[in-house]
Specification:
The complex is a heterodimer of chains A (116) and B (115). With 116 residues, chain A is an all-beta fold. In chain A, 0% of the residues lie in helices and 51% in strands. In chain A, strands 2, 5, 6, 10, 11 and 12 form a six-stranded mixed sheet that branches. In chain A, strands 3-9-8-7 form a four-stranded antiparallel sheet, with no helix packed on it. Chain B is globular and about 40 Å long. The chains are: A mainly beta (116), B mainly beta (115). Chains A and B meet through β5, β6 and β10 of A and β5, β9 and β10 of B.
């Protein structure tokens, strides 16, 4: 089974609007971390935001927030006030807390296009 | 600027050549990673080094040979590659253990083309 599922291959959003990128995960670990990365066309993977399995509050970092619904095993990324520079691939990733601690599982990614 | 530095940024090589990719970090991280990424796909884990020892090899062909000479450096030696090995090669580093909130920090990658 896929550890991380991103069901939206591509998304369009109008500049200045908010957009939600979906991510669901599968793990039997109680302790795990969820990460979102942005990858512009230039190639670098930029860490955006983190949510821990024990965190009771949704993570926020500037215009990025993570809508964490533990019972549904979802960790959606919300980008508020989209900017043209937000156009990129976005990957959701998970690290499990026990075995293979250093192994990240990546989803297939969502290509976001911000329209002017 | 990223804190993980990869060189070269671009590499074109023939199938009989031998070349090396280099990765350097000075964040005190003791876990380092090599990933291969094809266009429009997620990164695929190749190798993980933990405390300079190989801890994960994801069944990578022997034409890829990793090396971790010290805690700051990670190399990937390439020999007799195939055209399908053309990809973006990403290096990353992270804390080994501790809180699971530690992200992996990535370099800008090396774009490799095999002729």
């Amino acid at each position: 089974a896929q550890k991380i599922t991103q069901t939206q291959p591509g998304m369009f959003v109008q500049e200045k609007e908010a957009v939600t990128l979906d991510c669901t995960y599968d793990t039997s670990d109680q302790s795990y971390g969820l990460f979102w990365y942005k990858q512009p066309s230039s190639g670098e993977m930029i860490f955006l935001i983190y949510q821990g399995s024990y965190d009771e509050q949704n993570a926020t970092e500037g215009r990025y927030s993570l809508n964490f619904q533990k019972a549904r095993k979802s960790a959606n990324l919300v980008i508020s006030a989209s900017q043209l520079g937000d156009s990129a691939m976005y990957f959701c990733a998970m690290r499990e807390g026990t075995y293979n601690f250093n192994k990240f599982y990546f989803g297939s990614g969502t290509k976001l296009n911000v329209k002017p | 600027d990223t804190e993980v530095t990869q060189t070269p940024k671009h590499l074109v090589m023939g199938m009989t050549n031998k070349k090396s990719l280099k990765c350097e970090q000075h964040m005190g991280h003791r876990a380092m990673y090599w990933y291969k990424q094809k266009a429009k796909k997620p990164p695929e884990l190749m190798f993980v080094y933990s405390y300079e020892k190989l801890s994960i090899n994801e069944s990578v062909p022997s034409r890829f040979s990793p090396e971790c000479p010290n805690s700051s450096l990670l190399n990937l030696h390439l020999h007799a590659l195939q055209p399908e090995d053309s990809a973006l090669y990403l290096c990353a580093s992270s804390q080994v253990r501790g809180s699971s909130n530690q992200p992996q920090h990535f370099g800008d990658g090396t774009r490799l083309s095999i002729l």
